[in-house]
Specification:
Length: 439
């Protein structure tokens, strides 16, 4: 067993860098656009009109990129649509928000300088909602996929189709919905099926009746969900340090329609929420967001929104309504292995065996040991299991490798500060205490 020391842990830095290769919009012709995106029109008159709109959009994109604003616009499959047409097809949500029972507020203390759940393996591939206002369903599944990955270390794509077809008590299918309502539906429905079992209809034509046979085998459920304190950059960052979060934005302006690369700093996108997306990380100056318009849009399906804004609601309103779920007890199925059961979840007794993600730890100068999870991003620790007490902290360092690990800190002067299990007690060290299993 490796000996560990109690340390003052520094914040880890996980910086993200994107290369923004400019599109050569000036050499893109109408014929190339039609061929590339397989466009066809019902009449010569319709095609003539769409060609006119296309070149108007090309002029707008070129004019913006000449300003060198730090972010670029580019042609995509929406190049033949006006702003209002684009919004009517894809953004018919009205986010009349009903708050969750609980609110997540940023606790005091340090947070990582940067987080990217895509590189951590907690985010599924980019999806495409098609011509259906089902963004709320994609944001919902993305949050729960991430939450269950954090809990189980298994990433399973979940079914937007089930939400659109079956969650009709408050959400409205292709006519819009709200992520918190969908979290509540999944909780009350005792789970949601996988994407494989209940796939999204090709092209986004997801209208239809709920298929009870396809939804009969849930692979993930919602134990609870919370709203993140609104209009607070630090609260959203702290929540994102734990898992991906659902957010709502205004996306009906050309800045979203033709976003290509860079950090979007424009206030012109507004804060009138009409689109549900998934925040999957942050750096010092941006939030990284997963969209549901396919991988040809933006930075391979992603957008970066500046963390600085003149509005308290953030760029495009991203700070207005963040929320996230806690994954319930249903373990996702394939792909991926089933997690190894824990003796007492994290922080268990090494004699009973540790989980695959924990290591047995003995701290120099105190008796006892425990199973310790590795710190996420150098600062985030799993919650205390229900059969123990104590405060999870990233407070240990391997004396050989320098890797950071978690411990349950406690008050050695307070009886029972590690819980009611007689086999666990608080051992005093450096003016504080650590919960260990007795030898």
């Amino acid at each position: 067993m490796i000996t560990f020391f109690l340390v003052q842990v520094a914040v880890a830095s996980v910086l993200v860098d994107f290369s923004a290769t400019p599109l050569q919009e000036e050499v893109v012709s109408w014929d190339l656009f039609k061929k590339h995106f397989r466009k066809s029109y019902g009449s010569v008159h319709e095609e003539s009109y769409r060609r006119k709109v296309f070149y108007q959009n090309v002029d707008r994109i070129l004019a913006h990129n000449e300003k060198r604003a730090g972010w670029r616009m580019g042609l995509n499959e929406f190049g033949d649509l006006l702003e209002d047409e684009f919004g009517a097809l894809f953004l018919n949500n009205t986010f009349d928000h009903k708050s969750a029972e609980d609110v997540f507020v940023s606790p005091p203390g340090r947070i990582p300088e940067a987080v990217d759940w895509v590189t951590e393996g907690a985010v599924t591939d980019i999806k495409n909602q098609g011509q259906c206002g089902s963004c709320w369903a994609f944001s919902t599944t993305g949050s729960l996929e991430g939450a269950c990955y954090v809990k189980n270390k298994v990433l399973t794509s979940l079914s937007e189709e089930e939400l659109v077809q079956c969650d009709r008590s408050r959400d409205q299918g292709c006519q819009g919905g709200l992520m918190d309502y969908a979290f509540q539906w999944i909780k009350e429905n005792n789970g949601i099926a996988s994407e494989e079992a209940y796939p999204y209809t090709s092209g986004g034509g997801v209208r239809g009746s709920c298929n009870s046979a396809k939804s009969s085998n849930p692979v993930a459920t919602v134990a609870s969900f919370v709203d993140v304190a609104p209009d607070d950059v630090n609260s959203l960052k702290t929540a994102l340090a734990q898992q991906p979060c659902s957010v709502a934005v205004e996306a009906d302006k050309s800045s979203w329609q033709f976003y290509k690369s860079g950090i979007l700093t424009s206030e012109a996108c507004g804060t009138k929420l009409d689109h549900g997306v998934l925040a999957v990380g942050y750096a010092s100056d941006y939030f990284k967001v997963k969209n549901s318009w396919g991988s040809t849009w933006g930075e391979s399906g992603y957008i970066r929104l500046s963390t600085s804004s003149n509005s308290k609601h953030g760029i495009c309103g991203i700070l207005s309504q963040p929320s996230f779920p806690t994954c319930g007890d249903v373990t996702p199925g394939p792909p991926g292995p089933t997690p190894t059961p824990a003796s007492s979840e994290h922080y268990g007794d090494p004699k009973a065996g540790c989980t695959a993600d924990d290591v047995p730890i003995r701290i120099q100068s105190i008796s006892g040991d425990f199973c310790s999870p590795k710190c996420k991003f150098g600062i985030v620790c799993p919650a205390c299991p229900t059969d123990l007490s104590g405060t999870p902290r990233c407070a240990l360092e391997d004396s050989t490798t320098g890797s950071k690990y978690c411990a349950l800190t406690c008050d050695p002067e307070k009886e029972g500060s590690c819980g009611t299990n007689a086999s666990v007690s608080c051992k005093a060290i450096q003016g504080s205490g650590i919960c260990t299993w007795n030898d």
